[in-house]
Write a structure and sequence with these properties.
With about 280 residues, the protein is α/β, with parallel strands linked by helices. It has three domains: about 80 residues, Winged helix-like DNA-binding domain superfamily/Winged helix DNA-binding domain (Arc Repressor Mutant, subunit A); about 100 residues, Periplasmic binding protein-like II (D-Maltodextrin-Binding Protein, domain 2, 3-Layer(aba) Sandwich), CATH 3.40.190.10; about 90 residues, Periplasmic binding protein-like II (D-Maltodextrin-Binding Protein, domain 2), CATH 3.40.190.10. The protein has nine helices and twelve strands. The radius of gyration is 21 Å and the shape is globular. Helix 1 crosses helix 3, helix 1 packs across helix 4 and helix 2 packs across helix 3.
Length: about 280
């Protein structure tokens, strides 16, 4: 058998993880048809059907599931081989807005580590205003912050983040009771927008949980304790957006912006990997 095409293997892993040819193509800066062609060639080479394709869904076949871990290990070994000449550790201080640093953050960091195991990551999770100030003062190399869509940005806009009313999959409202909310506290701009929208819509509410960061707020939702005002991209597994079902008001979108003055190849490659992982994170 011929050696596997690493680009095709990478396309398979991304498509499997994102469950979408379109998202995989975006992450690879390619086209959907090119990704599909690579995958068909890989399947033909292996003599196995790796993905089940339907008009609405892409999912792993049994053979694709068996191949996925080995494919990840192959890509990881390849990345480590390429990094062999970058033998000195490289410190990268990154700030991520607490609005989007949710339960999937460990997975994002795992991908970053696989990309460049010699990186020394210094991670800061805080409010966007504090992170921007730290980056401007040179204390952080790069920051991923959330800013209102109508505000002009100096950085690179990665995507528009939508926010929702996130609850456990089996959560149901209690008749005659106010909507129980999980938020990031009075200083959070999204919390302010949410309660203002509820008041204008005449929806009674009560704050029952205040957490520091999306992971804590999402945990309260996943536990069935409250409805979280949360970025959909940061919603933990096993939750859903109940806004439409409860006729709750829509929440504003905000841009996720990357700010960095780094220009060296190694740092930019790591930041591009992190940005692509965030951009293609499943949305609740």
């Amino acid at each position: 058998m011929k050696a596997l095409d690493l680009d095709a293997v990478r396309a398979f892993v991304l498509t499997a993880e994102l469950q979408s040819f379109t998202r995989a193509a975006e992450a690879l800066d390619s086209t959907q048809s090119a990704v599909s062609l690579k995958l068909r060639r890989l399947e033909n080479q292996l003599g196995r059907r790796l993905l089940e394709r339907t008009p609405r869904q892409v999912r792993l076949s049994a053979e694709g599931t068996a191949f996925l871990d080995a494919a990840r290990q192959l890509l990881g070994a390849h990345e480590r081989a390429l990094a062999a000449f970058d033998s000195e550790p490289r410190r990268l201080a990154i700030g991520i807005s607490q609005l989007i640093a949710g339960s999937r953050l460990p997975e994002l960091l795992r991908r970053l580590n696989e990309h460049d195991p010699q990186l020394l990551i210094e991670l800061h999770v805080a409010g966007s205003r504090d992170l921007l100030q730290a980056q401007e003062e040179g204390r952080l190399d790069a920051v991923l912050v959330v800013q209102p869509a109508e505000r002009r940005h100096r950085g690179e806009v990665l995507f528009a983040e939508s926010f929702g009313w996130i609850a456990a999959a089996d959560w149901q409202p209690r008749a005659g009771q106010p909507l129980p909310l999980s938020t990031q506290g009075a200083a959070c701009s999204i919390r302010a927008a949410a309660v203002r929208a509820l008041d204008e819509a005449g929806v009674p509410w009560t704050e029952v949980f205040i957490g520091k960061g999306a992971a804590a707020v999402g945990a309260a939702a996943a536990a069935g304790f409250a409805v979280a005002v949360l970025a959909r991209r940061a919603a933990p597994p096993g939750t859903r957006d109940v806004g439409a079902a409860l006729s709750l008001p829509a929440l504003p979108t905000q841009d996720v912006v990357l700010h960095s003055a780094l220009t060296d190849r190694r740092s930019r490659a790591a930041l591009n990997k992190l940005a692509a992982a965030f951009k293609n994170m499943p949305v609740a």
